[in-house]
Specification:
Blueprint lengths: L1 H4 L1 H8 L4 H7 L4 H7 L2 H14 L3 E7 L6 H4 L7 E6 L19 E3 L2 E6 L2 E6 L4 E6 L9 H8 L9 E6 L6 E8 L4 E7 L5 E3 L14 E4 L2 E8 L4 E8 L5 E4 L10 E5 L2 E8 L6 E8 L4 E9 L6 H7 L6 E6 L5 E5 L4 E4 L6 E3 L6 E6 L29 H34 L2 H6 L2 H26 L12 E4 L1 H14 L14 E4 L9 E9 L6 H18 L5 E7 L6 H12 L4 E5 L6 H10 L3 E6 L11 H19 L16 E5 L1 H6 L6 H18 L11 E4 H8 L9 H12 L3 E5 L14 H17 L9
Parallel strand pairs: 1-2, 26-27, 26-29, 27-28, 30-32
Antiparallel strand pairs: 1-23, 3-4, 4-5, 5-6, 7-8, 8-9, 9-10, 11-12, 12-13, 13-14, 15-16, 16-17, 17-18, 19-20, 20-21, 21-22, 24-25, 29-31, 30-31
Helix pairs in contact: 9-11, 11-21, 18-21
């Protein structure tokens, strides 16, 4: 029946169905899913809800599991509705008296709740829940104890935290600042990437840890109040440009002020305890000229609850604005997370939530957009056990089984060793038959097997953070600058520099880009090199001839070649530096890793510091024709255009950036096997056949030739994949296939022209390393020890 209505009528019907039905309709078809998760549909539905919604909705956490909402939520006007989070907190209220101090942040209906060790992001509309490792805190804190003692919300580690959305690209970010005696800095977590990144710019001034932040118009705002000098400041961080700025403050001093977002405007809520009646003022800022005016002003002593009036006399008492209803009633909550309402018609303050069972978290805003690229990538178990380290149940079973088996094996071996002399001395036939060679061999095999399993699990656990690079490349050397310095000095004072050794001079440092930065090249070529002094020059000459010829024909074509030296001990570095001098640092860049870490780590480093919309990895031997990159490029453009139209049908004929769509293309030599055009050595064919079988078992089907060194990714796909790669040597290609399937990134296998070049680094000794890495990958992902940073 819905098919007969047409797409336009279908959308009009879906815009008006309840939220529960929309979540179910996502599973009907791929077309409906793309429609319901599109930004245009979400914006239209938000406008309709604002016009038709009769009740105010708030996100709340229920402390008591057997709570009766009708008892604790009372509103005479019947205009309040609670959306409860799924929480596992103590059933007895007295045991959790400090829960009201647990800090949280919100933006566009998403709730961000930092806890010690973790950053939790939840979408109450869809139930999607994401968790990110927050790393080591600068200070040890007990958030609940500190909050209870201070009367203010304190984030773990005394971070000054904020949560908001980049209004340009739509990504949600968590910002945190640290102020230490000798330094201050700010870090950003883009939840689409899942990696903390330190900003180069420092905060303009100190901000205290006891006040929350507010996100308004693309910027996070912090309020700093100095009670001693009676001064106040507002610090703002633009989430797109990532620049700090100072914002004007209200004309009157706000001692117990709180900054907030009220109807998309920046407000400061201040209470004056020195004035009779505890006057409560809401200052609102006009974003056009940053002028402040009083939007609401009333006395808290008009409350109908005596307990609330008694709390207002404390200096640390504060109130946080939430929303304004259609009837003009003003809703806010206090430091106990209890909801109150100021009635504009009567001038009274009424309590809405009673008892200690409900804590207000944030206003509820329906948000149907997936937090990440795929809604299926999230998890939907709510805020359960937030303070506990999450361990996969499969991993717990493996640990318990290994522990039990090791106990049994150890007992068997001890019994065999202890009884063996007795059996020989007594000559018992039964004991002699027990201690046969076969049984001893079986015992040894069991010991070796479980020993191998234990070693794999332990090593996988040790490498759980191996996707984070040990050294972060921040600058690159420009070899051409040395020649410029030498010529300049010789021109000025040539008699004085006759004996100067210019090799001791430092190269000029060029800022190194990052995969999270916007692309400023069309194509990046990443070339890993390990002892490639002989084969690298010919391959680079052929590559540069092609790139320069294409750039001369197409003025919109821009490129860069990134050479990553994986700890070479020959003249590879000299060859690479010579090419940088010849073609300038803008076209060829050289990154040395210092010591050998593996081909996978070399390619990962190059990918993470490239500038292109399309990123191509290719071997240093030139075994694949460079012109074949056009095959991969054309197929990626075709699939990206189709994916973009599926994601939002309205953008089908609209131009888009190829780097923003997630697509991967794998060069393949599978066709050469059938036509017998590849003349590899026998042991390489043996390795290939055996490796394909193991790959099929570890990563599944999909790509026949995973080990071809000719692969292309869009910038969005590379950012997602290479921030999660854990393997550093030969099997990282298999992990890329596994991650592509995990993220639902389209994989294309395209035939390329390939010929074997003498000097390959693959040998018979590579077999154990390949099997070892595949075992680590299976153990790491299957047990949940290797976390997906942006699944």
């Amino acid at each position: 029946m819905m098919k007969e209505l047409g797409l336009d009528l279908e959308e009009e019907v879906l815009l008006r169905v309840p939220l529960e039905s929309i979540l179910k309709f996502k599973t009907v078809s791929k077309q409906w899913r793309s429609l319901l998760e599109s930004r245009s549909f979400s914006e239209r539905r938000r406008i309709i809800i604002q016009k038709t919604q009769k009740k105010m909705q708030f996100v709340a956490a229920a402390l008591l599991l057997n709570i009766n909402p009708e008892v604790v939520v009372k509103d005479d006007d019947e205009e309040v509705e609670m959306i409860y989070l799924d929480c596992d907190f103590p059933k007895v209220q007295e045991e959790d008296s400090g829960f009201s101090r647990r800090p949280s942040l919100s933006c566009d209906g998403l709730v961000c709740m930092p806890v010690p060790g973790w950053i939790n992001v939840l979408n109450p509309s869809t139930g999607e829940f994401l968790r990110f490792d927050s790393g080591r805190d600068p200070k040890m804190t007990d958030v609940l104890v500190d909050g209870s003692r201070r009367g203010f919300e304190v984030f773990p580690g005394y971070w000054r935290m904020g949560f908001g959305r980049d209004i340009v690209n739509g990504s949600y970010k968590v910002a945190r600042m640290c102020f230490e005696p000798n330094c201050s800095y700010c870090e950003i977590l883009d939840i689409n990437i899942g990696v903390w990144r330190k900003l180069k710019r420092k905060p303009l001034f100190y901000v205290g840890e006891r006040l929350k932040s507010a996100f308004v118009n693309g910027s996070i705002h912090w309020l700093e109040v100095d009670c001693y000098y009676h001064t106040q400041k507002i610090l703002a961080l633009d989430l797109h440009t990532e620049k700090f700025r100072s914002v004007k403050t209200p004309p009157l001093f706000c001692k117990s002020g709180q900054i907030a977002n009220l109807e998309d405007r920046l407000v400061v809520a201040a209470k004056d305890i020195g004035e009779p009646g505890f006057k409560f003022c809401i200052w609102s800022m006009d974003p056009r000229d940053e002028t402040w005016s009083i939007a609401y002003s009333f006395h808290l002593s008009s409350s109908t609850r005596s307990s609330f009036i008694s709390r207002c006399s404390h200096w640390w008492h504060w109130c946080m604005p939430l929303a304004v209803s259609k009837r003009g009633n003003f809703y806010f909550y206090d430091q106990e997370k209890k909801l109150h309402k100021y009635c504009s018609d009567t001038g009274l303050v009424r309590g809405v939530t009673y008892g200690g069972g409900i804590r207000i978290v944030a206003p509820f805003v329906e948000n149907l957009l997936p937090i990440r690229g795929s809604a299926s990538s999230g998890r939907t178990f709510g805020f359960r056990n937030l303070d506990e380290f999450e361990t996969s149940s499969c991993f717990r079973q493996i640990k318990s089984s290994v522990r039990k088996e090791w106990l049994g094996i150890t007992t068997t071996v001890v019994a065999v060793v202890a009884l063996h002399p007795c059996s020989l001395s007594q000559g018992a036939p039964a004991m002699e038959s027990l201690l046969t060679v076969a049984e001893l061999g079986l015992s040894l095999l069991l010991i070796v097997f479980w020993g191998f399993i234990s070693v794999v699990v332990v090593e996988a656990w040790r490498r759980r953070h191996s996707n984070v690079p040990v050294e972060t490349v921040t600058t690159l050397e420009d070899p051409t600058s040395l020649k410029q310095i030498q010529l300049s000095v010789e021109r000025i004072a040539s008699p004085l520099v006759a004996n100067v050794d210019f090799k001791q001079l430092f190269y000029h440092q060029v800022p190194c880009p990052h995969i999270s930065d916007p692309a400023d090249k069309y194509l990046s070529l990443i070339v890993p090199a390990f002892n490639e002094e002989q084969r690298l020059p010919a391959a680079l000459e052929e590559t540069m001839d092609y790139l320069q010829g294409r750039a001369s024909r197409d003025k919109n074509f821009s490129y860069e070649v990134v050479i990553v030296d994986d700890g070479s001990v020959d003249g590879t570095k000299r060859v690479a530096v010579d090419f940088v001098k010849k073609y300038t640092v803008d076209n060829i860049r050289f990154i040395p890793l210092g010591k050998n870490q593996g081909k996978g780590e070399a390619i990962r480093t190059g990918m993470m510091h490239s500038r292109g919309e399309l990123l191509l990895m290719l071997d240093a031997d030139g075994a694949t024709k460079i012109t074949d990159l056009e095959k991969l490029e054309n197929q990626i453009h075709a699939v990206a255009r189709e994916e973009n139209s599926i994601r939002d049908p309205a953008l089908k004929n609209v131009a888009f950036k190829i780097g923003d769509v997630q697509v991967s293309a794998f060069g393949s030599r599978a066709h050469l096997e059938e036509k017998a055009l590849a003349t590899r050595k026998w042991y390489r064919n043996f390795l290939m056949k055996g490796f394909h079988l193991v790959v099929l078992l570890a990563a599944g089907s999909g790509i026949r030739d995973t080990q071809c060194g000719f692969k292309m990714f869009t910038r969005a796909a590379a950012r997602r994949l290479f921030t999660n790669v854990h393997l550093k040597r030969w099997c990282f290609d298999v992990e890329l296939v596994f991650l592509c399937k995990r993220f639902n990134i389209p994989m294309l296998e395209i035939s390329v022209n390939w010929s074997e070049i003498p000097g390959s680094k693959v040998s018979l000794l590579s077999i154990p390393n390949m099997l070892w890495e595949l075992a680590l990958m299976s153990a790491g992902y299957r047990t949940g020890m290797w976390k997906i940073l942006h699944a």
